[in-house]
Write a structure and sequence with these properties.
Elements: E1 10-11, E2 14-17, H1 23-32, E3 36-40, H2 51-58, E4 66-72, H3 76-85, E5 90-94, H4 97-107, E6 111-117, E7 131-136, E8 166-169, H5 177-184, E9 188-191, E10 196-198, E11 201-202, H6 204-214, E12 220-221
Parallel strand pairs: 2-3, 2-9, 3-4, 4-5, 5-6, 6-7, 7-8, 8-9
Antiparallel strand pairs: 1-12, 10-11
Helix pairs in contact: 1-6
Pfam family, one: PRAI
GO biological process, one term: L-tryptophan biosynthetic process
GO molecular function: phosphoribosylanthranilate isomerase activity
Length: 222
């Protein structure tokens, strides 16, 4: 689907497995029904891959999970070079609201924007793109954005009632994702290091358990 939305309506929680670099992890995402798979195009990430590598992985399965490309403050030329090689369904961006909206207009693809938060008063009230990712702010010593395997304090989401699509990220794992969605009501969840053997190398069994546990406490998505 080109909208970057959930592939079905009703009782369904979206699951994204990010940072795919190798065949076993990618194949497990497809086998166990992930909604999105994420390719990281950011050189400082241990999960960084080239557009050619992403294209080879993507070509292993026609259809299935939507392909998401993750970019950190990308230039238009960078995005264009990647899209010339690998077909992506969604662009996940670390940038300002205005820049994310500009990318959406320029490339005509759904854009998801990261919104790191540390407290309830930092939760967004509007969304200028197709989806927001709510995750913890990185530590001051971090060399890259994102959850950095840190768990968000889920209590900051209590009482937050967004009217736009969003996704919970940061410190999720097969062991805590069920509790996370029960506490936050997240309509979608995103994991990377929580299903890995080592950075960039996924554990197929952990992927299976994460997807199953994320969807265990089903609820109706409006």
């Amino acid at each position: 689907m080109s909208s970057g939305s959930l592939p079905s309506q009703g009782l369904q929680r979206g699951v994204k497995i990010c940072g795919l670099t190798e065949e076993a992890g990618f194949d497990a995402c497809m086998e166990y029904g992930a909604d999105w798979v994420g390719f990281v195009f950011f050189e400082r990430s241990p999960r960084n891959i080239t557009p050619q590598q992403a294209n080879r992985l993507s070509a292993r399965h026609a259809g299935g999970a939507q392909r998401v490309g993750l970019f950190v403050h990308p230039e238009d030329d960078t995005l264009a070079r990647v899209l010339d090689v690998v077909s992506l369904d969604v662009l996940q961006i670390y940038a300002s609201d205005d820049r994310a909206a500009s990318i959406r207009h320029r490339f005509g693809l759904p854009v998801w924007l990261s919104k790191p938060v540390a407290s309830a008063d930092e939760l967004p009230t509007v969304c200028a793109v197709d989806r927001l990712l709510i995750e913890p702010k990185p530590p001051t010593t971090a060399t890259r954005p994102g959850g950095n395997a840190q768990k968000l304090d889920w209590s900051v989401l209590h009482g937050w009632k967004p009217t736009f699509p969003w996704m919970l990220a940061g410190g999720l794992s097969p062991d805590n994702v069920e509790q996370a969605v029960k506490e936050t009501g997240a309509p979608a969840v995103d994991v990377s290091s929580g299903v890995e053997i080592q950075p960039g190398i996924k554990n197929p069994d952990a992927i299976k358990r994460f997807i199953h546990n994320a969807r265990a406490p089903l609820f109706h998505i409006n």
